[in-house]
Automatic annotation (TrEMBL):
Coiled coil: none annotated. It holds the Pfam family CREG_beta-barrel. It is found in: Secreted. This is CREG-like beta-barrel domain-containing protein. Residues 36-199 form the CREG-like beta-barrel domain. It comes from Lithocarpus litseifolius. Belongs to the CREG family. The keyword Glycoprotein applies. The keyword Isomerase does not apply. Signal peptide: none annotated. Gene3D superfamilies: Electron Transport, Fmn-binding Protein, Chain A (2.30.110.10). One of its GO terms (cellular component) is extracellular region. Keywords: Glycoprotein, Secreted, Signal. PANTHER family: CELLULAR REPRESSOR OF E1A-STIMULATED GENES, ISOFORM A (PTHR13343:SF17), CREG1 PROTEIN (PTHR13343).
Amino acid sequence: MGIKVLLPCFYVLYLFLFFVGFPGSIEGRLLRTKKPDPKNAAATARWLVSQNSWGVLNTISSDLGGAPFGNVVSFSDGLPNKGSGIPYFYLTALDPTARDALKDDRASFTISEYPIGTCGKIDPENPTCAKITLTGKLKLVDKNSKEAEFAKSALFSKHAEMKDWPEDHSFQFFKLEIENIFLIDWFGGPKPLTLDQYLHASLNWFASIS
């Protein structure tokens, strides 16, 4: 078979893999690491945060008399395979979430395994479809700090269009200073998990479920 015949075949294969997905991918997206064993709460928690790109950020609403207000936001905890476990956000005070945080920084951030695509056909509320809520303080990152550079790299590498968002909207970097972790990844209720265990979980701990 000549080269002229082989080239179209390789091109078709490339298009198929690009749009359908490579082996080991979920919905056409390559997973950087496989889902950890549910017995390893720290690894599961860090996996959920590193693999997701959005969640629901909840603040104390200044517009609704102190009622909780949840907002879908994009986030990143670091460069691919180098997550810190700390969620960073790119927010504008034109949106209620940032305005609320600047007045009352109490917040929580909820992430589900479901968007990753590894829950199969089960309902998102099923305990085996992991979910995590991180509670703490939503803090503005000093724009002149090294942490702001880290936040920028982390967010823009995961959400490329952010760098083109309107300058007159005055987007700023925020982070969630975690104080409490609520994790469910199997039957039996929430898993005990301290902040120290979460932050010091090695990404090498991730192991696939056999």
